Amino acid sequence: HAAWLPPEAFRALGARRILVHGHGLLVDTVLAEVSRACARYGGRVWHSPSWDVDVDLVLALRGAGELPNPAVEAARAVGEAALVEIGDGETLGDEGFLLARAGEVTVVVADAPAGLLYGLFHVVRLCAAAYDPARPPERHRPALHRRMLNHWDNVAVHPVMGQVERGYAGGSIFWCAGRPRGDLARIRDYGRLLAASGVNAISVNNVNVARTEALLLTDRLGDVAEIADVLRPYGIRVHLSVTFAAPVVLGGLATADPMDEAVRAWWATTTRNVYERIPDFGGYVVKADSEGQPGPFTYGRDHADGANVLAEALAPHGGVVHWRAFVYNHHQDWRDRSTDRARAAYDHFAPLDGRFHTNVVVQVKFGPVDFQTREPVSPVLAAMPATRLAMELQVTQEYTGQQRHVCHLGPWWSELLRFGPWGPGGRTIADVATGEAGGGLVAVANTGDDLFWTGHPLAQANLYTFGRLAWDPRLDPTAVLDEWIALTFPPSATADPELVGRTLHEIMDDSWRTYERYTAPLGVGFMVNPGDHYGPGIDGYEYTRWGTYHFADRDGVGVDRSRASGTGFAAQYPPYWAQVYESPESCPDELLLFFHHVPYEHVLHSGSTVIQHIYDTHFAGVEEVAVMRRRWQTLNGMIDAAVYERVAERLDEQVRSATEWRDQVNTYFFRKSGVPDERGRRIY
Ligand code: BDP
């Protein structure tokens, strides 16, 4: 299955003499990785206890006991010295590692086995540079504790959503037609890819929990345990999406009221059973009172009451509950302007700040509406200082081209993580998610049983980038893309690595902005076909119950979310942004229609009018996709033919679809506004 980490990516590692010092499940994984690489490239591996060997690389656990081996002793000494030199008194932690040079030897030191595994993958990324004598010591620790993927995989095939809800990469790697898929080798490969990107947690079933999926918590727990066993050697903990109604659905109780003693007892007992079977089980993921899922509102309770009952059950075992803030009324009346879906998460959750147990992580979609190509950062992330918050991203490209379009999301996620909700220069979203007080980063996965894992081979880069940014949100997304390119197309697998690298950057670096240019303009969002959400459906949701409107008429377009004349959503932000978003004069162009309803002739900061901006960006977007396709064609014969063909095929579809977007959006707004394109281009 073509992905990053082909054997060739290990060439620099595999040609060396390597000593692994330490014991444990994840150390065995390290040993297996280096042994495989050395067998291929002529290197040699020793596992402690071994002494009197000359080595190039030492991977050592510090607590693993003294050994009369000069290399390990040197490694230990260098490690200690380097830590002192880096000098903030911080240790390496459960997942951190140190990389340093001790004379002729490269040394990776960790305090825990997971750190050694991450250190190994760092050496693989560095390739020959890991052996550079001039390399200064580096200490690496993940900024975010939990770096989690949510799989929206159904166990039983859903009549509308199929095996994987919003999946664009074939079937599930975990489940097939109501049963475990049984391909444990594939799950193991997946764990390896994820570990190499930094992911350390995964939920294995859809947040919309139907009956078969609900049973994973009880009768079918063995199926989950089997997955956990396979992922454990890669440092990945398994979590489960559960239904809030489980005490009724599975336990036969009359109620799921979180204040009911029998309900509490049921969760406690059920959870204890889970930990008996899966001692390192991560915890629960819950979508409650959302899009038809059951929740505490049924019993007149709020979401803190609901989350806390599960948290109490998990606490004795060290588990967490990821409780989603995606709660809104999906039966709105489009004629009634008094409700605004963008407000909902804040209205429901901000008042509950401080009431959640410490092992509750409130999981907040990055934007206030729903994973659109462009949204402001959710104000909930700035409104709950006494709650552990995780931001939720969508790696699966539901609204960003469904893995038929190239849409590299790294630059966008980086922007979100660096956003300062209290104003520029202050604390960022990454800070909110970081450390003990933070809830980490979560994303909906984009993988399936497809040959390339992600349908579009280039969509793998989104998965890889997610893990890397969760490990360190300050990483430059362009540099992360470089890593992915080097790991996926190592020199031996391509005729001209420099050309391949440059071309991929040219195609991918700006592809999210390109996608934005030919789809919904200026942050207005949701101009997609209802149901499958692919392709233009400009009025598709305009008169529906879902609360996602653009309000285009003959005079203008956009949603007035100001405090003065609109829904008041802008006032949910801390003062700096509340003020910026409040008026069309200060609102950034790219979010103008998210926050304001403006006339077509409104002049943007860019100097263009809204209507002319719509025309220009849509023409430009399609041209950019045509250029992407031409660039890709220059790689014909340079890389694996199957990868080449798959991407070429998808680029044809992207050109077709982008053209359709352009023509529908431009025509729609031309007909609404009657304003001609000032450059006289053809609009239908
Ligand atoms: C929406 C998806 C829907 C998901 C929902 C969610 O269309 O399939 O169930 O998000 O996040 O965007 O729960």
UniProtKB/TrEMBL annotation:
GO terms for molecular function: alpha-glucuronidase activity; xylan alpha-1,2-glucuronosidase activity. Residues 454-681 form the Glycosyl hydrolase family 67 C-terminal domain. Residues 140-453 form the Glycosyl hydrolase family 67 catalytic domain. It is an enzyme of class 3 (hydrolase). It comes from the Bacteria. It holds the Pfam family Glyco_hydro_67M. Keywords: Carbohydrate metabolism, Glycosidase, Hydrolase, Polysaccharide degradation, Xylan degradation. Its EC number is 3.2.1.139. This is Alpha-glucuronidase. Belongs to the glycosyl hydrolase 67 family. Signal peptide: none annotated. One of its GO terms (cellular component) is extracellular region. The active site is at E291 (proton donor), D370 (proton acceptor), E398 (proton acceptor). One of its GO terms (biological process) is xylan catabolic process.
